[in-house]
Amino acid sequence: DVLVLERSIATLPARADGPRALLVFAAMVVTAATGLVPIAIAALAAAFVLIAIGCLNIRQARRAFDARIFMLVGVSIALASALERTGGAAFLADSLVALTAGGGPAVLLSALFALIAVLTNVLSNNATAVLFTPIAISAAVTTGAPIEPFVITVIFAANASFATPIAYQTNLLIMGPGGYRFRDFLIAGTPLVVINWAVFTLFATWYYGL
Predict the structure, then answer these.
(1) Cα 112 to the chain's mean position, in Å?
(2) Among 39, 119, 145, 183, which residue has the least CB neighbours within 10 Å?
């Protein structure tokens, strides 16, 4: 005899619904990729369609929402807007250029990468790149260094978005299903950011003769 002590909360997938779900997913991708509707609207419409045709019930849909992710998104948007609109990010960048001006192009490039890598894990990578590209060009001109390595620094550093879940969309996507916490991203992602910074600084300094 078997005594059931606890029922599993996991729901086995209904394989019969697979083709319909795949069709809805394909329709969402096509409509978003062709620009018929924004990706957010296409995804929301696809979710409603899946519920309407019975591939997903309300309980399953509700469980798919992770409140932590929505809180993180809201906080990150507010913080990014505050840094941009108050000039906080620009002030940090200008201060960095002033502090490292006497150290030569290599020191400035390394410090610029470090600052951008930190801010890209708070702001979005696109906002960080747009913000720092003119600053990097201005810094290169001021120090008499070639512009190319400084622009490339912005590109690489703005994409070093490994250390926080709010740094990039895919980080948020895996946070809920994977059961990760904010500190997990810090522990796993910070060493990657440091490695990127060190390798890029050494290579760029050697390659461009800074």
Answers:
(1) 19
(2) 183
For residue 168, the 8-state DSSP code is S
d(CA 112, CA 136): 8
pTM above 0.70, yes or no: no
Separation of alpha carbons 146 and 30, rounded Å: 43
Residue 76, C-beta contacts closer than 8 angstroms, at least 6 positions apart? 122, 123, 124, 166
Q: What is the pLDDT of residues 138-186, one digit of tens each?
A: 777 777 788 888 889 988 998 888 888 877 777 777 777 777 888 888 8
pLDDT tens, 184-197?
888 888 899 999 99
* Euclidean distance between CA atoms 173 and 80, whole angstroms: 20
Which structure tokens are listed for 20? 């319909």
Rounded Cα distance, 37 and 143, in Å: 46
Q: What is the pLDDT of residue 4?
A: 53
> DSSP per residue over 34-98, as a string?
TTSS-HHHHHHHHHHHHHHTTSS-HHHHHHH--HHHHHHHHHHHHHHHHHHHTTHHHHHHHHHHH
Count the Cβ atoms, other than its own, within 10 Å of residue 15.
Answer: 7
Greater confidence, 59 or 6?
Answer: 59
Classify residue 164 by its DSSP letter.
S
